[in-house]
């Protein structure tokens, strides 16, 4: 029981004294975020409207908390959700977006996007005039990974799940350290769903290729 109490305090202790609106907003983000990833695992287009709700609210929460790197990434997720929503639904008899794997050119594009995003995120921190601490450098790295993962997802590339898994594993302890316990718990669930998503998409890719 004592161990359970420590775990509960670790994830939720920071919410003592927090205003009820922020707690309610984080709860909404938690629910819609998990639902969105669940839809993504099934390659269902509802991943985008549900994800859009979560990311827009998260932009506000991270702005208030002063985590501008993460805030910028969630603003990007919101825009990419709109693009992905359009890209997944914009299909006809000649152009059907199916699950596929990246080719060499797309891998290079992904790496360029990742490093450019890391640079932009770093400049955002400098632009806001904040002292850059070690946790902010982690923001910079995960921002690049998440950016590329979101772009790959919009293209229905299997590799998007590999990047989500890597970045989620990094983000879980980072958010816990910052006292955002509910978001940390959410990313733990995201990690499990991302593993399942990778298996599901890879299986579907194999079936389509065969």
Question: Would you give an account of this structure?
Answer:
The protein has 210 residues and is mostly helical. The chain has one domain. It has eight helices and no strands. It has helices at 2-12, 20-41, 47-65, 68-89, 104-127, 134-154, 159-177, 181-209. The longest helix is centred in the last third of the chain and has 29 residues, at 181-209. It is globular and about 55 Å long. The N and C termini lie far apart (51 Å).
Task: Summarize this entry quickly.
The protein is mainly α. Helices cover 80% and strands 0% of the residues.
Key descriptive features of the protein:
globular; mainly alpha; 210 residues; 8 helices
Tally of domains: 1
Class per helix and strand makeup: mainly alpha
How many helical elements?
8
Question: Which series of helices and strands comes N to C?
Answer: HHHHHHHH
How much strand? Answer: under 5%
Determine the fraction of residues in helical runs and give it as a percent range. Answer: over 70%
Describe the secondary structure blueprint for this structure.
Layout: H1 2-12, H2 20-41, H3 47-65, H4 68-89, H5 104-127, H6 134-154, H7 159-177, H8 181-209
């Amino acid at each position: 029981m004592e161990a359970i109490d420590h775990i509960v305090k670790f994830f939720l202790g920071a919410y003592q004294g927090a205003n009820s609106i922020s707690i309610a907003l984080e709860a909404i983000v938690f629910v819609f975020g998990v639902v969105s990833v669940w839809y993504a695992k099934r390659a269902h287009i509802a991943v985008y409207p549900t994800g859009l709700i979560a990311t827009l609210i998260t932009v506000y929460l991270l702005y208030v908390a002063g985590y501008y790197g993460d805030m910028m990434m969630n603003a990007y997720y919101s825009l990419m959700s709109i693009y992905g929503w359009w890209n997944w639904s914009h299909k006809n008899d000649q152009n059907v977006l199916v699950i596929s794997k990246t080719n060499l050119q797309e891998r290079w594009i992904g790496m360029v996007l990742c490093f450019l995003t890391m640079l932009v995120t770093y400049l955002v921190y400098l632009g806001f005039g904040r002292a850059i601490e070690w946790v902010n450098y982690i923001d910079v790295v995960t921002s690049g990974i998440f950016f590329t993962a979101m772009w790959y997802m919009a293209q229905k590339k299997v590799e998007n799940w590999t990047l989500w898994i890597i970045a989620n594993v990094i983000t879980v302890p980072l958010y816990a350290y910052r006292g955002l316990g509910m978001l940390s718990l959410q990313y733990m669930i995201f990690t499990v769903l991302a593993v399942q998503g990778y298996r599901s998409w890879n299986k579907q890719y194999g079936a389509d290729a065969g």
